[in-house]
Amino acid sequence: MATKKILIIEDEPNIRELVLYNLKTNGYEGIAAEDGIMGITMVHREKPDLILLDIMLPGKNGFEICKELRDEGNNTPIIMMTAKTEEEDKVTGLEYGADDYISKPFGIREMMARIKAVIRRYETVGEARDVKEKASETILTIGELTLNVERHEVTVAGKNVELTLKEFELLKYLMQNRGRVFSRDQLLNKIWGIDYAGETRTVDVHIRHLRQKLSEEYNDEGYIETIRGKGYKVK
Ligand code: CA
To answer: Under a CB-based contact definition with an 8 Å cutoff, are residues 59 and 37 in contact?
Structure first.
């Protein structure tokens, strides 16, 4: 795993140095800004993995920085460093989009534990999002026939096949239920809707077109099978 870069925005040199030192000994890359303006600049330039943010700062205060970053769509995790007496600051910080806060004076072990927890939380959310994005791209494959549900794309041997909406829906349904036999009435209801006043012949026509398109220019795999007296299925 790549070294995490952590930016501390803090005007007190003692705290800054202490935190930087401990970030380094805990395996992080630490960088620092001593006022609000420089802090924002460094967020943009350095793209840290996490920000430790003081509230009372020259230039721009911690709340302003937090709000500004969130308003521009920057979701870098932020831990606010609040003075122990300022209970309200914690609430305000979270309202402005901070992820966590730590009260000053803080022990360095507590600080490291918070950093670890916030980074882990973000990674978990990120992984969950990745998995979700992958899952939403459903691709059905049979032999050389591929159907991408989200992109509405059908290819045979890598070549694009242009289908009408109903042809696509029909093929998708058969592929999703591979091996199952559907009667013409069932397909009519499923693809054209229960109220569709068409004839079952509509299904035959679409199946014929589908077969032509899937096999005409490409190799004929015979994807859709006719079950005499029953209906159709995908092999
Ligand atoms: Ca300060």
So the answer is: yes
Handedness of CA 124, 76, 28, 109 (dihedral sign): negative
The string of pLDDT tens digits covering residues 195-221 is 556 677 788 888 888 888 887 655 555
pTM attached to this predicted model: 0.55
SS3 state at 76? coil
Q: 81 C-alpha to center of ligand 1: Å?
A: 9
CA–centroid distance, residue 230 to ligand 1 (Å): 78
Distance from Cα 61 to the centre of ligand 1, integer Å: 9
- For the residues 154-175, what does the mean pLDDT come to? 88
CA 143/CA 214 separation, integer angstroms: 12
Question: pLDDT tens for residues 39-92?
Answer: 999 999 999 999 999 999 999 999 999 999 988 888 899 999 987 566 666 667
76 Cα: distance to centroid of ligand 1 (angstroms)? 21
Give kind and range of the element (H or E) at residue 54: strand 50-54
Q: Give the β-pairing of 153-156 and 159-160.
A: antiparallel
What's the CA-to-centroid distance between 33 and ligand 1, angstroms? 12
